[in-house]
Each structure stands twice: as structure tokens, then as C-alpha cells.
Write a structure and sequence with these properties.
Layout (H helix, E strand, L loop, with lengths): L5 H9 L5 H16 L2 E6 L4 E6 L4 E6 L1 H6 L2 H36 L5 H5 L5
Antiparallel strand pairs: 1-2, 2-3
Helix pairs in contact: 2-4
């Protein structure tokens, strides 16, 4: 394992707040980009599909004919909830990954690469 120069590490930490306005502009741009994307989640082996935008706002729910006919209402309701939660999770994970990745790379590129960074992003 290689050791990092401690002065380089300290300098990277100092630079974290060197340009907060620039960081804010980049984050706003990333949020706008993700907001325009759609993310899906499924349940009941694909019988229920929910679609949300990048900020988690529900766009649509699709329930297959087979799922409607073969599933009781309570289970179907739970599947809709599960599909929406999965879609929201996908959107949130993408947004967090991009924002944190950009911010951390800009400030700590010397300390963290993408593989290390992903260990800190919650599932």
C-alpha cells in the first residue's frame, strides 16, 4: 500500500472550501441534469413498474394485465409501494453518486478515486 504525502493531504482538505460558489454551481447543474432523467423500479417479477424523475417525483405506474388478474389487491398495493421505493432509490443513488463524486473528485481527487468513493455511498 502506498502512503500519501501528509502535506498533500492537508492541502486537499484546505481546498475543500476554496471555491464554495463554484461547487454550488456544479452541484446545481448536476441536480438539474438528473432531474430531467427518469428512473424505474419493479416488483412482482416485473409485473409492476414505477417511473420517477431524478428527484424522485412519481411519473407513472404500470401494472401488467397478468399482475392485475393474478394478484390480490393488498399484495398488488404492496408491490406498487415496493416498485416506487425501488425507483426512488435508483434516482437517489444516481443523484448522490454524481454530486458526491463531483464534489469529492474536485476537492479530494488526490485522496479518493471512484472505487473508494462508492464504498461511502449508502445503498
Amino acid at each position: 500500500m502506498t502512503t500519501r504525502d501528509p502535506y498533500e493531504t492537508v492541502e486537499a482538505l484546505r481546498n475543500l472550501v476554496a471555491d464554495p460558489e463554484g461547487l454550488q454551481r456544479r452541484v446545481q447543474g448536476l441536480v438539474s441534469d438528473v432531474q430531467g432523467e427518469t428512473f424505474t423500479g419493479t416488483a412482482l417479477d416485473g409485473g409492476v413498474t414505477a417511473t420517477v424523475n431524478g428527484l424522485g417525483a412519481l411519473q407513472s405506474i404500470e401494472i401488467s394485465t397478468v399482475a392485475k388478474r393474478a394478484t390480490d389487491n393488498l399484495t398488488l398495493g404492496d408491490a406498487v409501494t415496493e416498485a416506487v421505493a425501488a425507483a426512488e432509490h435508483n434516482a437517489r443513488a444516481t443523484l448522490v453518486s454524481r454530486v458526491v463524486g463531483d464534489a469529492m473528485h474536485q476537492r479530494f481527487g488526490v485522496l479518493l478515486d471512484e472505487a473508494r468513493l462508492r464504498r461511502f455511498i449508502p445503498e
